[in-house]
Design a protein that fits this description.
Bound molecules: adenosine monophosphate, glycine
Shape: globular
Helix content: 25-40%
Strand content: 15-25%
Distance between the termini: 47 Å
Mean pLDDT: 95
Length: 430
């Protein structure tokens, strides 16, 4: 069986590693993959956003199944284009991927179906948005570009001047291109954040182990927002009681709302939640696995990922028993100095042999690596590696991940030293 994973980051590496364990023994391909992924799959140099290129390759080379991991090809309709050529794929079709592709759509969906989220207004006119900002008297205020913006389209504005500047940047100066032609302006919520990824075939919903991302670049949640500097799973704030409330008030209503809209969602639906004093609320939906959430969630999956994925596509998820380990996982991201802003590439990575750590106990997922002309592993992106460890408890997982991360070096390496500390405090307070 030939399986192609579309994408080339740490999330895709974690998906490939799990697929490699499948009893179906798939032959694995990645497009475009990366330096480290090339140890686990055959990398094909086609960009993840090249819908025609990927579809032609998959049809021509006889792929039996394709996993479309990143947001942009899903929003562009890659799953639909593959289906037209008879290639089954994991992920929502274009009609359903809009749940991430348009924040105006997702906010209106939540309002219409009574799914708890921050109060908001939407605007397609900069003057009207600015007037709304001037009338506002509760700060901070959150301003979001409607479309995909590489995770940078959310601005938390402390006062009127900052909010007016955000409206100008997004709507008048086009900082995020067409993604910013509409905006959502919403109230600021407080509380611990939880990521819950769910497999769904539009009928059955299978929540995976919960997780906690660390989005800011620097320790103490300081610095700029990034794609994610580290994760832990499970998230100790997400108790069984809260999980039941989320299934009842958020997960099931969302899947049913999408069905009612004629946009049945099949794939991985990511709920970015905030546990506010008024109960859990949706901060954002993603139409895909999170990165780096996947690097802690999938290592805890005990069932065959390939069988689970195929069941979401075929609508047979209800017939499967999907199991997660009771253990804990931690992932520490090793980034290029300067990320999420300018950084240099091409730095030689030391401390890894054959793409693996010399000592056991941790797994290294490659996010931004390449092999240079001499076959040496070098940095090739902002987030370079994700070092994940699984253990019986969160403190043990964190300590194993940091111990392994300590052995890896490259010029300019930057990482946070406090991944998991907030989660540990939550455990101590329970
Ligand atoms: P997003 O790109 O949608 O994941 O948003 C980035 C981050 O902004 C989230 O992880 C939250 O920490 C924060 N955020 C987004 N919306 C709100 C909100 N309404 N209130 C407070 N924080 C928010
Ligand atoms: N780590 C957040 C995301 O994947 O969007």
């Amino acid at each position: 069986m030939k399986v192609l994973v579309v994408g080339g980051g740490g999330r895709e590496h974690a998906i490939l590693r799990k697929l490699k364990e499948s009893p179906l023994a798939p032959q694995l391909y990645a497009a475009p993959g990366n330096g480290g992924i090339s140890y686990d799959a055959q990398c094909v140099p086609i960009a993840a956003t090249d819908v025609a290129g990927i579809v032609d390759f998959a049809a021509r080379e006889g792929m039996d199944y394709v996993v479309v991991a990143p947001d942009d090809p899903l929003v562009l309709g890659m799953v639909d284009a593959l289906a037209e050529r008879g290639v089954p794929a994991f992920g929502p079709n274009k009609a359903a991927a809009i749940i991430e592709g348009s924040k105006v759509f997702s906010k209106n969906l939540m309002k219409q179906y009574g799914i708890p989220t921050a109060r908001y207004e939407t605007f397609d006119n900069a003057d009207a948005a600015a007037e709304h900002v001037r009338q506002n008297n509760a700060w901070p205020l959150v301003i979001k570009a409607d479309g995909l913006a590489l995770g940078k389209g959310v601005l938390i504005c402390e006062d009127e001047a900052a909010a007016l500047a955000a409206v100008d940047e997004i709507m008048r100066e086009g900082k995020f291109g067409a993604s910013g032609s509409r905006v959502v302006i919403e109230e600021f919520l407080t509380g611990p954040e939880v990521s819950v990824l769910c497999f769904t075939d539009g009928k059955t919903i299978v929540p995976m182990a919960s997780s906690m991302d660390h989005k800011r670049a620097l320790d103490g949640d300081k610095g700029l927002n990034t794609g994610g500097m580290g994760t832990v799973a499970p998230n100790p704030y997400y108790t069984a009681g809260i999980a039941a409330v989320c299934m009842e008030t958020i997960f099931r209503p969302t899947v049913e709302a999408m069905n009612a809209e004629g946009r049945t969602f099949k794939g991985c639906l990511y709920f970015g939640l905030m546990l506010t004093p008024d109960g859990p609320k949706v901060i954002e939906y993603n139409c895909r696995f999170g990165d780096p959430e996947t690097q802690v969630v999938l290592p805890l999956l005990e069932s065959d990922l390939l069988a689970v994925m195929q069941a979401t596509t075929n609508g047979t998820l209800g017939g499967l028993d999907v199991r997660f380990s009771e253990k804990s996982a931690a992932c520490v991201v090793l980034a290029s100095g300067g990320y999420p802003q300018y950084y240099e590439k091409g730095k030689v990575i030391e401390g890894l042999a054959e793409g693996q750590l010399p000592e056991g106990g941790a797994t290294v997922y490659h996010a931004g690596t390449a092999l240079d002309a001499d076959g040496a592993l070098v940095t090739a992106g902002g987030r370079v590696l994700g070092v994940t460890a699984v253990a019986g408890t969160l403190p043990e997982a964190l300590s194993a991940a940091y111990k392994a991360a300590d052995k890896i070096t490259f010029e300019g390496l930057h990482r946070r030293s406090d991944i998991g500390q907030r989660a540990l405090k939550a455990i101590q307070n329970v």
